[in-house]
Amino acid sequence: MVSVNSVTVSFGGYNLFDNVSFLINPKDRIGLAGKNGAGKSTMLKLLAGHQSPTKGEVTIPKDCKIGYLPQDMTHQHGRTVFEETESAFAEIKAMQARLDDINHQLETRTDYESDAYMKLIEDLTEINTRLDIVGASNTAEEIEKY
Questions:
Q1: C-alpha–C-alpha distance, residues 1 and 4, integer Å
Q2: pTM assigned to the model
């Protein structure tokens, strides 16, 4: 649960938010709507930890991961839009690389009865399960959508 408790955000003596409190429960779906300058981006920056409130606190559980994509994106020169979008899948790419390494080891090893070999099989199963859960089989398709 994400908790925003008595948050005030001030800029030059002007309060953008004053004593704002709310909770975001697991599985909640929220949207922010408002006119330009109302503080939508500021609120998202607070939730993502990119900005601190003037007063109050934002509490986010350790197992909660919040991403924030700014309106004015900075990008690395020389990278295509596809390459930039692909960077969001770095964790998946790392798991796939580990999977390739495990498969290579399983192909070349002959110590089938050892604990180390069984550990490789357990790791292989765990990584395949995680990749399946996150839908890693279609990352290129997902990148093309965006």
A1: 10
A2: 0.51
